[in-house]
Amino acid sequence: MGQKLKIAGWISVGVVAGALTTVSLQTVARGGMTPLPLEEIQQLSAVFGLIKTDYVDQVDDRKLITDAISGMVSSLDPHSQYFDKKSFKEFREGTTGRFVGVGIEITQEDGLIKIVSPIEGSPADRAGIKTNDLITKIDDTAVKGLSLNDAVKKMRGEPNTKVTLTILRKDESRSFPVTITREEIKTQSVKARMIQPGYAWVRLSQFQERTVDDFVRKVDDLYKQDPNIKGMVLDLRNDPGGLLDAAVAISAAFLPENVTVVSTNGQLAESKSTFKASPEDYARRGSDPLKSLPAALKKVPLVVLVNEGSASASEIVAGALQDHKRATIMGAQTFGKGSVQTVRPLGPDTGIKLTTARYYTPSGRSIQAKGIVPDVMVDETAEGDLYASLRPREADLEKHLSSGQGEEVKDAAREKAREEAMKRLEEESKDKEKAKKERLPEFGSEKDFQLNQALNQLRGQAVQVSKTKTERPEAKKED
């Protein structure tokens, strides 16, 4: 694929940082020379000099420059990032599904670190860390004031070493320490099993380098168990995304050959691309990794489960299958992370991850800050969505990109739902036993309400459609 393939940024143990290199009075842009603003560059140089001469303590030159780089790029959007030597190594490890740490996907909220979700089976998951927990301290260091990058560095380390996280759990009105032993995180991004005779469940928790091979192996196993599968559920709930080529490949597994999966558009010529259900657009090593899949997979009745935590690569898959009418999309409107991040090396062991384009579904819809709207809205439980409105989405992130297809409209209904959910949390925090009962069941379990509704859809039975979920308001068209 050459330069055509991009790395789709994760909502994960990510860092917000950035990069700057200026070695002359002009920078080379793709397609021409762009003059630098000399007055502003002189101001930057003047500030650097004042800090070196006037600041109360001596400051390392390298730190000043890298902090300036970080600030420059982090001001662009939540997903552009500068990689120093260590974070560049960690980023590459993350895309392979192997790294040493505690195993959490995080974001930042009010200066604290917020848990988006613990990685299934990780030390943090086993220690009881939960979605929406806040980290206030890492060992003896207060998180307030730390960048996301620095927080990640403190949580990463060598295998078998310990780190103590101080957790603030708002729904239980308590703060407590959790000591976790770091280990190599080998995330299993694909789970699959027959959940009922004739019906299969395939769950993707991330899109990594191994995801496509694992998907093919597990789907082949399912068809060996039952060559006449009647229906399949592709579960993308809380899947934060990952690698673009993996998303294209998973889409291609279900779609006719050579149809459009996703397109991208940005300033650079290489950012204006169309990715199709073709080995040319997803095969890493020349051979087609999907060639062993049974032909029946192209026709099997399919339901795709998504929710507010489905982002980036998972939205690409859901959007492609929806636009080609290959699957029924069920659940909740997705996260809305529809931007492309391209990794550019700045040296042998440093680099920059820069947002270079937006994603569009085959029909031309922008995913950014909007997400995929399900064909059938389904609540998390039979009683409704208890806390879904509290989950952050792309449109909630500071400095997020717009969709590029019109102004955003504040969702008044969601704001009201958030207020109600917060009140519910406050009330339930007083009743610990009730709070335990309200916890959502594990994905894929017998008590998984949305999965049961997906099975009803496949069997042609009645589906309990949400009475409260509505599509987030359409963007106002710009004049």
Automatic annotation (TrEMBL):
Family classification: Belongs to the peptidase S41A family.
Name of the protein in question: S41 family peptidase
Keywords, ordered alphabetically: Hydrolase, Protease, Serine protease
A molecular function (GO) term: serine-type peptidase activity
Pfam families listed in its UniProt record: CtpB_N-like, PDZ_6, Peptidase_S41
One GO term (biological process): proteolysis
Domain PDZ: 88-156
One GO cellular component, as annotated: outer membrane-bounded periplasmic space
Naturally occurring in which organism (per UniProt): Diaphorobacter ruginosibacter
Record field: compositional bias (Polar residues): 450-467
Region (Disordered): 398-479
Domain of life (superkingdom): Bacteria
InterPro entries attached to this UniProt entry: ClpP/crotonase-like_dom_sf, CtpA/B_N, PDZ, PDZ_6, PDZ_sf, Peptidase_S41A, Tail-specific_protease
Positions with biased composition (Basic and acidic residues): 398-449, 468-479
